Amino acid sequence: MGRLTRAEVQELNRRKVLAAAREEFGELGFRDAKIDRIAERAGLTRGAVYSNFPGKRALYFAVLADLAIGTPAPSPPDSAGTARAALGALARARVARFPLSGMAEPEDRLARDLPSVVLADARTRQPYAQLLKLDALVLGLAMERMEGAGSRRLVPVAETALTLLHGADQLAAAAPGFVDPFQVVAACERLAGLAPDGAWAPPHLPYGAKAQPVDEAWTPPPATDALRSGAVRLADEDGVVAVLGLHRLEAIEEAVRATAGQGGGPGRGPGVGSGSRPEGVVTAVLVTGEPGELGPLARLTVAELGAGLRQAFPRSAWPQLRLVHDELGVLAAAAGVSAVSDATEVAVRIEGGRIVARAEGRGACHAAATPG
Q1: Domains within the chain, CATH numbers bracketed
Q2: What digits encode the pLDDT tens for the residues 130-160?
Q3: Is the pTM of this model over 0.85?
């Protein structure tokens, strides 16, 4: 057997650290886990752990992300149903993981500390809030494409359902036997019948970004749609590419609504997963100023979002939205963004393999996605 390269040794050590950390966090929880013990379990030095992960919290996020990405993906429903049925299916999948008897599977015990770990530092709270906004956006858009949804904007309904599910999960852990999973599912199903007041409206900002016409080469590197776990060829498709820091993820809705030509309400065009080539698809490129710590948190949240979509929604209902992790900023650079942070908001419109418009700052997603 040949000698391993430096890169292969680094990857092997990284896998050893992740495996050891999964055991440590699973047995002791985040608070009592120790980096020294993780290094000992992995048969490595403390320095080797820190050469792969900047700290214990980053390692914890990486363990959860690795577990979520490695979990076999469920098969989507074969046919479209109602928004009520989809929300019920999503809720049943979530409550099945609740520790209703005070006990939980090892994988679920690992995730028990996530809310407290996020809450402990302001640097993680805002990105996590935006990642949950992204969850609600994708789920709400999918619900809007289901039978009987009409012209309602269902993103607020998805936000309420996620609030209920996350809260019930934490209460089930804190007060075993109190939460009735059947009532939680029934409540989520009833939420689908809500009619939120007001339609979506584009941003009205006096300092809002304006799209500037450009004519630049568009040569993006290979990319993976983290929502669907599949490769995408960005160079071959027209649409909008939005480079967004983890503090600005809610702006994705502006690009999706404007690209669909909705003005003030939801649309029901064909989904990305419907089998035909999507027109005017939106690609959200997720970037961060702290890739070592916040990158894994983003990967974890998107992986769980993808699992939820597969469990509850047919492919035809998935929105025309792709999510691409770009922790190294390579794809952002191809879009003309030389430096990224968690506040980054830059969007470009692609037509015929060229960048034809660019907008930067608040409102950039809507500006770049609006024709003319």
Answers
A1: 6-52 (1.10.10.60), 83-191 (no CATH), 212-369 (3.40.30.10)
A2: 999 999 999 999 999 987 777 888 999 999 9
A3: yes
